[in-house]
Amino acid sequence: MRALRTLLITVILLGLAAVAAGIAVVLWYSYQRQPLPLGDQCVARVADADVALTTEQAHNASIIVGVSTQHGLEPRAATIALATVYQESGLRNLDHGDRDSLGLFQQRPSQGWGTAEQVQDPYWASDRFYDALVTIPGWETGDVNDVAQAVQRSGFPEAYRQHVENARRIASSLTGQTPASFSCRVANPPAGDPAGLAAFLERTLPDDVSVRDAGDRVVVEAPTNRSAWSAAQIAVAQRAHHGLTRVELGGRTWTADPRGLAWWAGEGSGGTTVTVRFDDVATPTPTPGG
After folding, report:
1. Where residue 257 falls among pLDDT bands split at 50, 70, 90?
2. Are 172 and 78 in contact (CB under 8 A)?
3. Closest residue by Cα to residue 140 from 66, 90, 68
């Protein structure tokens, strides 16, 4: 009996240790603002280095970068914005913060950034950030951390510096500066939603990019190859939201693969037409009386 009791105690202690270790891993990745290794995630692969994002972070980063292109700004602007948001909210659209700080950028309604509702709208918040950014003298060439601090006026003026390299890689990928560099792995995506993706892209991409919902696919026409790559990779980032399974641009193709972060087969990266395909398309909910 004593041996059995000892064995049971040992098993219980080992189980508790495993649970504690699991909790520690989750907390560590949360603190590092990274997805769990085997969980759903997106990756920007630029300059032989990977930046992993949760699908929520990828969605928010897409909006931040898309708004920068709407403003006609170079990728550096998106780098500054992303470094800021990494520090302020971990690329999450928070409904809380220090004092009255809210949203991605932790903007304060009391400081004139907008209403509480507005600063929690990623498009509004990004617009206001870029409006403030371009008023900073020398923002185009100044130190990223210092420019971000000039906009935000944080109590931790050096905190943005630690996020600059990750921000640069994400910005380079999602602005199309680095083609074929963004992928997502989602185990259980929703049914295909071409209309939803088309609406998202129309709101997120610049006015000179045409987005067409073709029923079973979405077709994007861009004025330049770089803006086409931006559209393609921003579309990929919506895998967890709209269920797309394939993106085609020029001679390259991305295909969703739940087993890994597979990206692009084929040769060439030219072209200005992006085709987004869906394996299964969600059936619209009938309207009453329809």
Report:
1. confident
2. no
3. 68
- Which residues make beta-bridge pairs with 283? none
According to DSSP, the β-strands at 49-53 and 210-213 are unpaired
**Residue 131 C-beta-side C-alpha neighbours within 13 Å:** 9
pTM over 0.70? The answer is yes
CA–CA distance, 249 with 224 (Å, rounded to integer): 12
For residue 253, give the amino acid letter: T
Lowest mean pLDDT among 12-21, 47-56, 158-167: 12-21
Rounded Cα distance between 115 and 26, Å, is: 34
Number of Cβ within 10 Å of residue 162's Cβ equals 12
